[in-house]
Design brief:
504 residues, alpha+beta
């Protein structure tokens, strides 16, 4: 005779004295079949709703476009700009001037500037190895004992400054389409390149020294001094660039190296200026003799005061050197030689004093030479008659030619230095690694990725509810939802005694 076989699920309470709950798997299966259609319908509806809601939310959240930029120059690893000052990347990148230039070049109204700027944000990217190192330092600091606390603190004080930055443009508060937002961001980053070179490039190096020279308001001798004061810082700057330039850069625009330009400055100083100055002095060429003599006397008085200060400093340094006790080294005699030898050696401070003395002596010597030069000019003006008109015209022509030559040299220096900074010194100082883009495929992918997680969670909850409902339904199919608890032995004896009393 076939017996009906079934599988039961037994639930036993852990507490002593509690009964077991037995439920048939067949009953649970009935519940699963009963609610299957309902579960499928609910799962589909909930899935569609969650996907639509997530897509709408993601669509609103995805009104942003991003780009990746990098800075590569000496000092960026310490958070400094090329000038050695603290570098605020966001303030620099999102400068109103940059945004305005971008909007102007795109032909968009400049009143959009504030809304664009409000939607911009900059996020530094920290490499994984740097992040791991920072976390390690933090763990060492937290677990350090009192004895190692100072060392751990020193490790924790190590800072990391990003060299790559993510520029994010959230255009949800603007009327821009995706393509328009991408266009604005990319144009802004392109305009920033010019802004970066303008702020940190050549144009800030010389200041007013590179301006065109207006010599016409000066007397002839004064004009020569003006040219000389302009060429001196220019020569120093070119020498500095020539020393820094390890590539021996030659401009494709001017054809010059910095050494070539420095040599040109030296030629103008030693040839053109000296010839004009000598001719003016020998021939007593001046527009106003008395005014020129007053100017020369002013220079002499200024130089004498400068020389007196230098002489006082020289005397003080000399006295310090004379009274300075050098470090002594005693060498003892060895063997039968009982003679000890003492050597003296100069310290770093002593060497510094010697260097200061040489500098002061040079100042005194230079001032004396200049005083003699101007006093000679004063004597020439006093002893000789004024130059003829013909000689004055010659000097004017020579000064005009010199002015043209100097201005041409300044233009060549500008062009060469600008090209050098852009193509060599700052070639990789600022780069757009990944420009902003508006990819439809990427947008759809982001929507799908954003909707998948909530949809899976909703479906998981629906499945759990479905299984619980089937289990509860199976319980209800059993004859007894929960079997009554068996009475305890003492309770049974008490019941028997009660029955006996009732019968008697």
């Amino acid at each position: 005779m076939d017996e009906k076989k079934d599988i039961n699920v037994t639930l036993q309470m852990e507490q002593e004295g509690k009964s077991e709950v037995v439920i048939s798997v067949f009953s649970i299966w009935k519940g699963l079949k009963r609610f299957f259609i309902l579960w499928i319908a609910a799962a589909i509806l909930l899935g569609i709703f969650s996907i639509l809601f997530s897509a709408l939310y993601a669509s609103d959240q995805n009104k942003r476009t991003t780009a990746l930029v990098s800075f590569t120059y000496k000092g960026i690893e310490q958070g400094k700009d090329p000038a050695g000052k603290d570098f605020n990347v966001k303030d620099s990148l999102c400068n109103p001037e940059v945004i305005q230039n971008a909007l102007t070049q795109l032909g968009r109204p400049t009143d959009e500037l504030e809304s664009v700027r409000a939607g911009l944000s900059v996020k530094g990217i920290i490499p994984s190895d740097a992040m791991d190192r920072i976390i390690t330092y933090q763990n060492v600091y937290q677990n350090a004992t009192n004895g190692a606390l100072s060392a751990a603190q020193a490790m924790l004080d190590v800072s990391y400054y990003s060299t790559q930055y993510q520029v994010i443009f959230d255009y949800s508060d603007t009327s821009y389409s995706s393509d328009e937002a991408v266009q604005v961001l990319n144009q802004m980053l392109d305009c920033y390149r010019s802004y970066f070179f303008e702020v940190y490039g050549y144009n800030k190096a010389l200041g007013s020294a590179i301006d065109a020279i207006d010599y016409s308001s000066y007397d002839y001798a004064e004009a020569v001094d003006v040219f000389s004061r302009t060429l001196t810082p220019l020569a120093d700057y070119l020498d500095q660039l020539a020393e820094e330039d390890t590539t021996r850069f030659r401009s494709s625009k001017t054809g010059y190296t910095f050494a070539d330009l420095a040599s040109a400055v030296e030629t103008i100083e030693s040839m053109d200026l000296d010839l004009i100055s000598s001719y003016i002095t020998v021939n007593n060429v001046t527009k106003d003799r008395q005014a020129l003599m007053t100017y020369y006397q002013y220079r002499v008085d200024s130089l004498r005061r400068k020389r007196n200060v230098a002489r006082e400093r020289l005397d003080a340094i000399t006295e310090s050197i004379d009274n300075y006790e050098k470090d002594s080294i005693l060498i003892f005699g060895n063997g039968t030689d009982n003679v000890n030898t003492t050597y003296t050696q100069a310290s770093e401070q002593y060497d510094k004093l010697i260097s200061q003395k040489i500098s002061a002596q040079k100042e005194v010597s230079t001032a004396t030479q200049q005083i003699d030069f101007f006093e000679t000019r004063i004597e020439a003006l006093e002893d000789r008659s004024a130059a003829s008109r013909e000689k004055m015209e010659r000097v004017e022509k020579d000064l005009a030619d010199l002015n043209e030559k100097v201005n041409k040299l300044l233009d060549d220096v500008n062009a060469t230095a600008d090209e050098y900074y852009e193509n060599v010194a700052f070639a990789n100082a600022y780069n757009v690694l990944v420009p902003a883009s508006s990819s439809t495929v990427g947008f759809i992918r982001s929507l799908i990725n954003g909707a998948m997680k909530p949809a899976v969670m909703v479906e998981a909850v629906a499945l759990l509810v479905y299984l619980c409902a089937a289990f509860i339904y199976g319980l209800r199919l059993e004859k007894g939802k929960l079997p009554e608890l068996e009475a305890k032995p003492e309770d049974k004896s008490a019941d028997k005694q009660t029955e006996k009393k009732a019968k008697s």
